[in-house]
Amino acid sequence: MRDWGYQLEVNFGGSGGESSGTINYAWLSYSGFKPLTFFAGAMKPSMTMDDTTSSNEIPFIERPAAVNMAASFGAGDSRTAFGVRGNEGNFYASLYYTGGVIGEGGADEQSALVGRAAFHFQPSPDSTVHIGASGTNVFEFNQPSGGAGPVFTLQDRPELRIDGARLVSTGTLNVEDARVYGPEFGFNWKNLYGQAEYYRYDLDRRGVSEANFDGWYVQGAYILTGESRSYDAKTASFGGPRPSSPFSFGGSIGAVELAARYSTVNLDDNASNSTCLGTVSGGSATLNPAATSSCIRGGEQDIITLGVNWYPNRNVRFMLNYLIADVDRRAYSNNSVANGGPNAKIGQDYTALALRTQYNW
């Protein structure tokens, strides 16, 4: 029976307009054919380095938007899937055939292949370097009830999940098939850690031109107390630091980590094209009727995140993040010339402070 495994996890969280209870994981695995492990059920397929990293190990409160969007094509939590993964020596690889998301309906109409491969090496006993790539090919999207065709929306919250607001979004697109792919890189050297990923999103739409977007991030952390982030060859990702000594009054302070990240996504496609700009006549601006098909004004989002993490022991951590966000987006339809016409800005600049207290076991 040691060759069989399982996981069952239900998420009872939720705020604002989010759901109140969902199945995150419900899968069986078989590892009798070393070094491969086979999975079947509802799971989170390995797609991108950051999304593969456990939420107990990531250095920031939320993942970068570029990663969340990449995972939304055919991976992410609660995805019905059958797949295999394995690692041997310095190599890691995984491949999943995925369906829909539990609770969203139409699961049998969603189909995609999700793949990831990585290689790591150690230039010195105190360092690890990771090089890899992830990709998803969606063959078919869910068919909405009563809809004219499969639809897909590429969007994400601004890396702070306090409600359901998305400041950048392509809106609903009639998509036939799609691809997302990109490289990943990471390293650690003693108590210094860095990681970066780039992703390109290609959407084949029905009756109009292909839409292309991209996003990337770079992040790093330095542990003041000297611990290091370990590398897990089974998942090809970096884990969180483990305090060399637990916190105690008059003794150790645990582990303290400083972190910084810059992330960006661009969901504009031909947004400045002349077919998008419209015309002005008789004191009013009119958007070209072809704009919604030939142009997409999803917006550009740039976020700088600064963080301080305190790990009193292996089970408790406190995370303080300061976000500086810059969102630039043009309106699709604003017929008042005084308000800027079709080029009116509906973006947003803001700063935010977030604190997370977390206990895991």
Offer a few descriptive terms:
two-stranded antiparallel ribbon; 52% strand; 361 residues; mainly beta; 5% helix; Porin
Tell me what the structure shows.
The chain has helices at residues 49-52, 65-71, 274-277, 291-294; strands at 4-11, 22-30, 36-43, 79-88, 91-101, 111-121, 127-140, 151-152, 155-156, 168-169, 173-189, 192-205, 211-223, 231-232, 237-238, 255-269, 279-281, 284-286, 296-311, 316-328, 348-359. With 361 residues, the chain is mainly beta. It has one domain (4-359): Beta Barrel (Porin), CATH 2.40.160.10. The chain has a 15-stranded antiparallel sheet that branches. A two-stranded antiparallel ribbon has the order 9-10. Strand 19 (296-311) and strand 20 (316-328) form a beta hairpin. The longest helix is centred in the first third of the chain and has 7 residues, at 65-71. It is globular and about 65 Å long. The two termini are 24 Å apart.
Parts with pLDDT < 50 across at least 5 consecutive residues: 278-291, 334-340
Give the rounded overall mean pLDDT.
Answer: 86
| Alpha-beta content class | mainly beta
Separation of the first and last Cα atoms = 24 Å
- Gyration radius, in Å: 22 Å
Domain module tally: 1
Along the chain, the helix and strand elements come as EEEHHEEEEEEEEEEEEEHEEHEEE
Beta strands, count: 21
Q: What is the CATH class?
A: Mainly Beta
CATH superfamily: Porin
Known CATH architecture: Beta Barrel
The CATH topology is Porin
Beta-strand content bin: over 45%
**Amount of helix:** under 10%
In this structure, how is the largest beta sheet organized?
15 strands, antiparallel
Overall body shape: globular
Oligomeric category: single chain
Helix count from the secondary structure assignment: 4
